[in-house]
Amino acid sequence: LRTVAILRPQKPPRRKLHDPDKTTHLLIVLGSGGHTAEMLSMLQGLDPRRYNHRTYLFSSGDSMSAERAQGFEAHLKNQTTTNNGSMNGSVMKFPTTQAQADAITTTTTTTSTTEEERDWYIHQVPRARKIHQSLLTTPFSSLYCLLACLRLLRAHPRGWGYPDLVLVNGPATSLILVLATLVVRYFSFLDELPVVGSSGGEKVGRRGGGGARGGEMRTIYVESWARVRKPSLSLKIIYWGRLCGRVFVQWEPLAWQGWGEYRGDLMR
Length: 268
Hints:
Layout: H1 2-6, E1 25-29, H2 34-42, E2 53-59, H3 63-82, H4 98-107, E3 120-125, H5 138-154, E4 165-168, H6 172-186, E5 218-222, H7 233-241, E6 246-249, H8 252-256, E7 261-262
Parallel strand pairs: 1-2, 1-4, 2-3, 4-5, 5-6, 6-7
């Protein structure tokens, strides 16, 4: 029964009214190649006041994704400063190429804040599966990646607790992270148990982030824009396993086949 409770419902849940005073910890999974470009493109128009904590996850050996995330945040800061913190419903144009990210990062090095003052964090985990890696060794590397994802969720380096929202779009690492969120949610009842040695059986709530209660780790999967008629293997696993709370596709043929919700082209 607990497994059924944490898996994706058959029908999308009804939208809840958003509290404008509530902030959100957003966890974004980046992938080598086009996955990172698509993800940053989808994040155009992101309101940093609402998503005040942003964690970017990338795999080892994918330094380009980390650099582009830095450029993304640098441009986000510049745009927010230019608009005096007011978005006014405007859509901001973020860098989607490595050259643009490098140029923005270079121009903002003199005004960058220290790592402790930033409201964003970039985290590296081991790659789940390397290109041309043998299927015999893939389970071991995937398990290593899973343990790293669990450590991030359970003890965020910044103490931000569990993420409220996890956004993925298909790389192998995203599947591992989604599994990690399910594992943490499945055993979340352990976080409510009394702490050994505490006076009066004191409870600390969820332990994610140094004892601070974390978010609900709701997951959203967005299928790649390149998938028009045939779903990717990642989408098949996510859909058949009901692993994500919401699944979106960017082309109507996939929606007609029942692979996910269609809300138009999500890439700006």
